[in-house]
Amino acid sequence: MTFSGLSSLILALGAVQLSNAASIKRATCADGNTVTNAACCVLFPILEDIQTNLFDGGECGEEVHESLRLTFHDAIGFSPSRGGGGADGSLITFSEIETPFHANLGIDEIVEAQKPFVAKHNISAGDFIQFAGAVGVSNCPGAPRLQFFLGRPDAVAPAPDLTVPEPFDSVDSILARFADAGFSPAEVVALLASHTIAAADNVDPTVFTDRTPFDSTPSVFDSQFFVETQLRGTSFPGTAGNQGEVESPLRGEMRLQSDSEVYPRTACEWQSFVNNQSKLQSAFKAAMLKLSLVAQDKSKLVDCSDVIPVPPTLNAAAHFPAGLTKNDVEQACAATPFPALTTDPGPVTAVPPV
Ligand code: HEM
Ligand SMILES: *[C@@H]1O[C@H](CO)[C@@H](O)[C@H](O)[C@H]1NC(C)=O
Ligand SMILES: *[C@@H]1O[C@H](CO)[C@@H](O)[C@H](O)[C@H]1NC(C)=O
């Protein structure tokens, strides 16, 4: 190439860069919000509506927890060999078929609660489910700011049954199901961080008035779930003998058999989340983005992540619940000792229902 040829190439490259810079200029929406892409402006009225009318004014409560669970149950509905459209909203579009699947027990509540919002706004069910999940998680102190991509087409068919893992499935079959949908064991552990803002309503039918949390702090996104799942189980919150449930270390706390079995299988990865808020956030954020895009063509979607609110920060260190210490840890990671944590002062307490 001649010198002048090279310099005109450099000039041309410079022009391309300039026009790229021009095209990512921020857009101002009719309501005054600014976004990177004007196509995302449609989301602000939906954001306001769900914060007020679905999430009780911006709480990290029951509807947020259920909405997060729904992002998973919709998205995991895909298998390369058995079909399903992944994060396509089929759990809402074909709710008569999918909500009766055994693994979806209890999901009908949030499906019915979300339907009017999908009907009212110009958004696909697949987009709405993932948007509501990302917005909902932003209400939980300590959570990462999840990403959101807009533009999923409507679901064309229901997901096949048996794509959603059950708490009584063997750890082999759980990890195989996730692998089939494209997730590594480390990504499964990251996704299970969701159980730090979670409770069970349907695992123990004898505790039917309230919901039983998976950790002692179900309204903040902290690493207590990873601490407490490593503590020796001593009792059931209700009765023994429920399918998919094992003993937990705290009165009032629910431990799923699946969590109790994924922990020793992934021991050092699981333990690495204890008291490491930045890892907890970054790994969950990355895994949730992947989950929100299962069987979707990302190149056809618009990145609207800047519409998602920034979650409140959390300044609490991981800790042992009152009465428990390092002696109660059932250490499964051989390579790294359990991190040094302090024990909460005061008398032993039960985890209140939510
Ligand atoms: C090993 C795989 C998993 C199993 C076996 C499992 C099982 C369960 C079960 C049995 C419940 C209680 C439901 C009820 O009684 O109402 C639950 C709740 C929940 N799960 Fe999972 N789960 C798994 C993975 C995930 C993933 C990947 C996510 C999200 C990314 C998730 C999010 C949630 C949330 C947020 C709740 C709480 C719902 C509420 O409080 O209403 N789970 N899970
Ligand atoms: C609804 O959204 C689509 C893009 O997803 C757009 O093409 C269409 O014009 C919108 N309709 C209304 C009534 O706003
Ligand atoms: C937290 O996790 C990150 C990422 O895996 C790691 O680099 C860092 O050393 C961890 N921090 C602590 C205090 O363990």
Structure description:
The chain is mainly α. The radius of gyration is 22 Å and the shape is globular. The protein contains 13 helices and 10 strands. Helix 3 (62-75) packs across helix 7 (125-137) and helix 9 crosses helix 13. 37% of the residues lie in helices and 6% in strands. A hairpin with a 5-residue loop joins strand 1 (27-28) and strand 2. The strands form 5 sheets. The protein has a two-stranded antiparallel sheet. The chain has a two-stranded antiparallel ribbon with strand order 3-8. Residues 1-22 have low confidence and may be disordered. Residues 62, 65-66, 68-69, 72, 106, 165-167, 174, 191-192, 194-195, 197-203, 211, 244, 256, 258 line the site of protoporphyrin IX containing FE.
